């Protein structure tokens, strides 16, 4: 495929490539494989850190990764950059969340480190009451969520030196706005894009980082043009990415605000939205 027709495609993970249960539709897998076979470049562009990119995702085949919402950029086996939270700010985060009983996990490229009560909280939100509800217990046993299995539990020292960002679950006591106020000027505090974490859940990110900045840096490094870019996502953390790329596509399950700024709206994850968008925009044939 010549350089005029080759595209570089930036794909969000949660709610775009992967459904709420952590599964990747067969249609999306085949669309990605066929697009690369046709000569296009495919980059994951996600809020997830590298430790959250499971083998089942990598095995589909991608040319690189923009992770941690734009704080980490990898192309092939090379790293363009990796921006980390300072030790002082990590300590502040950990101490604040532990003091107020807020369940959280630290994202680094090596692992996802869970706070002491996170596992039980996540299981309640994802499966239900596993102690008393047989249906919830069966769901946990027969369909374990890869995210829960992918976390590192029981880590005594959470003052890590390679943290990309932190995610916290909704607290019944401390509202999101109070958390945002606590870290004002230190972090970009955004609401989490994973619905099961709760409306008051969120992410603390290094300021001045988002997906579009990382895409621009990668394009410059690769010597590729913005005119050859497509992006597809579902959450408001994809807004800058969709606005920056030549074609911005919102999933059918996307937030209304994202659909409003998108160039195109495809079907939902469950309705093979990624596959249909790839066909419509000429990356693959139906």
What is this structure's SSE topology?
Elements: E1 8-11, H1 26-37, E2 41-45, H2 55-58, E3 64-67, E4 72-75, E5 78-82, H3 87-99, E6 104-108, E7 112-114, H4 118-126, H5 134-142, H6 146-150, E8 163-168, H7 176-182, E9 188-191, E10 202-205, H8 211-222, E11 229-233, H9 239-244, E12 247-250, H10 256-261, E13 264-265, H11 273-280
Parallel strand pairs: 1-2, 1-11, 2-3, 11-12, 12-13
Antiparallel strand pairs: 3-4, 4-5, 6-7, 6-8, 8-10, 9-10
Helix pairs in contact: 1-11
What does this protein structure show overall?
By secondary structure, the protein is an alpha/beta fold. The chain folds into two domains: 8-83 and 209-280, Rossmann fold (3-Layer(aba) Sandwich); 87-205, Hypothetical Protein, Haloacid Dehalogenase-like Hydrolase, Chain: A, domain 2 (2-Layer Sandwich), CATH 3.30.1240. It is built from eleven helices and 13 strands. The chain has helices at 26-37, 55-58, 87-99, 118-126, 134-142, 146-150, 176-182, 211-222, 239-244, 256-261, 273-280; strands at 8-11, 41-45, 64-67, 72-75, 78-82, 104-108, 112-114, 163-168, 188-191, 202-205, 229-233, 247-250, 264-265. The protein has an eight-stranded mixed beta sheet with strand order 5-4-3-2-1-11-12-13. The longest helix is centred in the N-terminal third of the chain and has 13 residues, at 87-99. The protein is globular. The two termini are 19 Å apart.
